[in-house]
Specification:
The complex is a heterodimer of chains A (263) and B (254).
Chain A lengths: L2 H37 L6 H16 L6 E8 L10 E6 L14 E2 L18 H9 L3 E8 L5 E12 L2 E11 H13 L5 E4 L5 E4 L15 H14 L6 E2 L5 E4 L6 E4 L1
Antiparallel strand pairs in A: 1-2, 1-6, 2-3, 4-5, 5-6, 7-8, 7-11, 9-10, 10-11
Helix pairs in contact in A: 1-2, 1-4
Chain B lengths: L9 H4 L10 H14 L12 H8 L3 H13 L3 E4 L5 E4 L3 H14 L2 H25 L2 H12 L6 H18 L3 H14 L10 H19 L3 H27 L7
Antiparallel strand pairs in B: 1-2
Helix pairs in contact in B: 2-4, 3-4, 6-8, 6-9, 6-10, 6-11, 7-8, 7-10, 8-9, 8-10, 10-11
The chains are: A alpha+beta (263), B mainly alpha (254).
Chain lengths: 263, 254
């Protein structure tokens, strides 16, 4: 692999990060607003937090160009005085299985009674568990979100802290189909076969038409090359490109936890 | 929202999702009947109001009302008037068993085999694709579902089968297969897996699960499909025998 191609790969990886960074920026702004709002609230209640979160995310959810299809705030258990378990999450847009597009946005109807059969302890799930452990942003997926929208989704979540304590998280869902739409032009502009994978090696998008989104990219040495990405959330950013024994290059896409594989 | 809270129990959530096609009151009635006799909805549980039911199922108010009247006649719900009123589930084990037997009697062999083909087509394909696409985490979640299976009751064994098939579909990364799996589970209810009344078949369902997990772990797509299809076929063959027994007037009595 020549020096010129390696530089090109870094540029493409940067452009991929540029596509996703605005989503991160929006979530970070929600986190800042939530931290400001909650730090001045001695007795935070769902009754007053919900309208605040709604107003916060509604503007983005109805924006025509947005990648985001769902967003909100999830409270740490016991944080809100009137709702021990609480999700304030709103959804927009249409799923392929809905008869017609929903007008405006709708609230996710979550079970918050721990005694109910359908209750699920969300602190055990990846989108909560990882940010709680690392203290920073995490991208979960792609995965089929059969518990919520029946769609193929990535979910990005980041902790909300008050007085150094995690009181909940804010996050957003992005349809993978929408992501593919905006990533493919970036990949097509580059030389060689370019494939975006998550930290588990699952394909998000590829310039090779026969590589399916959702399949695992099986290349020698890829799992090892992606390992630092899985650990990066705790340790800080990874920027080093890695070479695969078969000649490919793996370049992290900024701090998205996605990687570009160039062959 | 991943693996959420909202529809943590997807089998329950699908009960109140929109219906399509003709004979809507019967469809509503059948779906709620399945949910009650299979124990997805619990004894004493309050159903949504007629208006909410109509809205969430996407049917007219009179259709929802008609279905509730039919359920009342079957003795599956009772209605209380007044402030704390509404329709409440009344689950009775024996009555449920009788209703399921009745449904088996009125469903032809041809329909049963066709149903099992459809289920096998969806679940088999999902298993085949899942074998190719499962990460280590995915295999771990399948193992966990199996570990949590309650094989001491027919209901527990059936919930494990449903939950496992749904997760395999999710591992295939196909929203359509997941959607179709959920739809089929809502449509067939507990009928296809009546064999889980027998301990022997609960044990076999466990073995099928272990075989499928093993095939997925080895990325052996053909074996994953085979084990899935064989299990569905075995269940429907038992069902057709049971139907013959019922029709000969010598029901298993279970």
């Amino acid at each position: 692999m020549t020096h010129a191609v390696a530089t090109d790969a870094a540029t493409v990886a940067r452009r991929v990060a540029d596509v996703i960074d605005p989503v991160f920026a929006v979530i970070d702004s929600w986190r800042d607003a939530a931290e400001r709002r909650l730090s001045s609230d001695a007795e935070p209640r769902a009754a007053s937090v919900d309208p605040f979160v709604h107003d916060l995310v509604a503007v983005e959810l109805v924006r025509a160009e947005t990648l985001i299809t769902g967003a909100g705030f999830v409270a740490a258990p016991g944080y809100l005085v009137d709702a021990p378990w609480h999700l304030a999450w709103w959804l927009s847009g249409r799923s392929p299985f809905q008869a017609e597009a929903a007008r405006g946005i709708r609230r996710l109807d979550a079970e918050s009674d721990p005694d109910a059969e359908s209750f699920r302890d969300y602190t055990t799930l990846e989108w909560w568990r990882v940010p709680e452990r690392t203290g920073s942003r995490h991208l979960t997926g792609p995965y089929v979100d059969y518990l919520c929208t029946d769609d193929y989704t990535v979910t990005i979540t980041t902790p909300v802290r008050v007085d150094d304590e995690m009181v909940g998280l804010v996050g957003a869902d992005v349809y993978v189909a929408r992501l593919e739409q905006v990533l493919l032009p970036v990949l097509r502009g580059a030389g060689g076969t370019c494939t975006i994978v998550n930290a588990s090696g699952r394909i998000v998008a590829s310039s090779e038409t026969h590589r399916a989104t959702g399949a695992l990219l099986r290349l020698d040495g890829l799992a090892e090359a992606l390992a630092p990405l899985r650990e990066a959330e705790a340790a800080g950013r990874v920027t080093d490109a890695a070479r695969l024994p078969g000649g490919g290059t793996v370049v992290p896409c900024g701090d998205t936890s996605l990687a570009l594989v160039v062959e | 929202m991943p693996h959420a809270t909202a529809r943590a129990d997807a089998a329950r959530a699908v009960i109140f999702s929109p219906l399509e096609g003709a004979g809507r009151a019967e469809l509503v009635e059948q779906r709620l009947t399945d949910a009650i006799v299979s124990g997805v909805l619990h004894d004493g549980e309050r159903l949504p109001s007629e208006a909410d039911l109509a809205k969430s199922l996407g049917v007219a108010l009179v259709t929802a009302r008609e279905a509730l009247v039919a359920l009342r006649h079957k003795g599956l719900v009772r209605t209380r008037r007044g402030r704390d009123g509404g329709s409440f589930v009344t689950y009775d084990r024996d009555a449920s068993a009788r209703l399921l037997d009745e449904r088996l009697r009125t469903t032809s062999r041809i329909e049963l085999r066709d149903l099992s083909l459809h289920v096998a087509a969806i679940a088999g394909m999902a298993a085949e694709v899942a074998a190719d696409r499962a990460s280590d985490d995915d295999v771990a979640s399948l193992v966990e579902i199996d570990a949590r299976a309650d094989l001491t009751s027919a209901g527990g064994a059936r919930r494990a089968v449903s939950r496992f098939r749904l997760e395999v579909a999710a591992v295939s990364q196909s929203p359509r297969l997941v959607h179709e799996e959920l739809r089929l589970q809502a449509e067939t209810g507990p009928l296809l897996f009546l064999c889980l009344r027998a301990q022997e078949y609960r044990d076999r369902s466990r073995q099928a699960r272990l075989d499928i997990i093993d095939a997925i772990r080895r990325a052996d797509a053909a074996s994953a499909r085979r084990a899935t299809v064989d299990h569905v076929t075995e269940c429907v063959e038992w069902l057709i025998d049971e139907k013959a027994r019922l029709e000969a007037g010598e029901g298993s009595g279970s």
